[in-house]
Specification:
- By secondary structure, the protein is an all-alpha fold.
- It has two domains: about 1-95, no CATH class; about 105-150, no CATH class.
- It has helices at about 1-15, 35-40, 50-65, 75-95, 105-130, 140-150.
- Helix 1 packs across helix 4 (about 75-95).
- The longest helix has 23 residues, at about 75-95.
- About 5% of the residues are buried.
Length: about 160
């Protein structure tokens, strides 16, 4: 059980560690920042991500979690970092959802944002499938989309040829 909890915390930490960092400037999909979480790795702001920047971000992420500077993370340090990151994400999401600024997120505000995101996602998907940009999905485009949909298996590998 202790190992399961430790593994769960490591997984949580890895997933949450990237979330609170600053993102690149400019609007991107769904009103978010262009490049999303990936561009926060662009430490020098040149619009490119080098292996050195990825390594530097990993080291900085570890250092932020290593509160006592011991060079090793305790479960308490990992938990504290995960909670801090989750809290920051929740605060950011709350600010986006609270459209009327009353300090509460109503069901209507939550649904408005969800509908807006779903509409933008649907339009991006349509644009990807519409290969000839004529604003019509023909049989060939639909067939190609269906063929490519779900190509990778859950483990990330390509399916075997039939």
């Amino acid at each position: 059980m202790k190992h399961s909890l430790t593994f769960a915390m490591i997984s949580l930490m890895a997933g949450l560690a990237l979330a609170p960092a600053a993102q690149a400037e400019g609007e991107g999909p769904e009103g978010g920042k262009r490049g999303g979480h990936l561009m926060m790795l662009d430490l020098d702001g040149d619009g490119r991500i080098t292996r050195a920047e990825v390594d530097g971000a990993r080291e900085a992420r570890f250092a932020r979690a290593d509160a006592d500077g011991s060079g090793a993370l305790s479960l308490e340090e990992m938990t504290a970092r995960a909670v801090a990151d989750a809290t920051q994400r929740a605060e950011q999401r709350f600010a986006r959802l609270d459209a009327d600024g009353d300090g509460q997120v109503s069901k209507a505000e939550m649904e408005d944002k969800r509908s807006e995101r779903m509409e933008k996602r649907a339009m991006r998907m349509f644009d990807r499938v519409d290969a000839n940009d004529d604003d019509v999905l023909d049989e060939e485009e639909i067939a190609r989309a269906m063929k490519h949909h779900g190509k990778k298996q859950k483990d990330g590998t390509e399916p075997k040829a039939e």
